[in-house]
Amino acid sequence: MRNRSEVVVLLIDDEEGIRESLTINLELDGFKILSASGGNDAIEILKNNKIDFIISDVRMPKGDGVSLLKYVKEHYPELPHVVLISGFAEINAKEAKSLGAIDLLLKPASIDYLIELIKTHCLCD
Question: Is the pTM of this model over 0.90?
Answer without folding.
Answer: yes
